């Protein structure tokens, strides 16, 4: 999104590293973990691309509808998967947030990077901020005991649940940061 350059580059690095780790997680022996990791890799790299400071690279106007279409397709996939596993509802929220941010950026006048038509926080932005702030706090609290000491039979590093939680926590933090710039 479009805030100060230094935090934006930190967000790009965080999201790109998360996306890269999620690509590595796709090598898991567990099919459900591979599937989730693929969606999370898409989110990580998409967030990294959206977070590049506008002063460095201002994407052409046609990019935002493409982002909305890609993340819209990912949201439909998450909705379809949510009928089997409620965990996918979080993926649905994440991809929906990306669609929303893409649509807002497409609707923003050139050179203006905030919500069109007024001041303050838009209701959708506020709801998404509340959800992702709560998600970050809850996931962080759940992660603390898990990070204490993995057991001796914890499996391959790509299959460790605490690393997947860290991945999701990083993307949640990134989403909050991106929503704050809206």
Low-confidence parts: 112-117
**H and E string:** HHHHHH
Strand content: under 5%
Strand segment tally: 0
What is the rounded distance between the termini? Answer: 8 Å
Give the overall shape, derived from the CA principal axes.
globular
Give average pLDDT, whole number.
82
Number of domains: 1
Radius of gyration: 17 Å
Report the total helices: 6
Class based on secondary structure composition and strand pairing = mainly alpha
Helix content: 55-70%
The largest pleated sheet is described as: none
Can you walk through the features of this model?
Helix content is 70%, strand content 0%. It is mostly helical. It has one domain (5-180). The termini are close together. Mean pLDDT is 82; it is low at 112-117.
SSE layout and pairing:
Blueprint: H1 5-25, H2 31-51, H3 63-82, H4 88-107, H5 123-147, H6 161-180
Helix pairs in contact: 1-2, 1-6, 2-4, 2-6, 3-4, 4-6, 5-6
Outline:
The protein is mostly helical. The protein has 6 helices and no strands.
Attribute tags:
182 residues; mainly alpha; 70% helix; globular
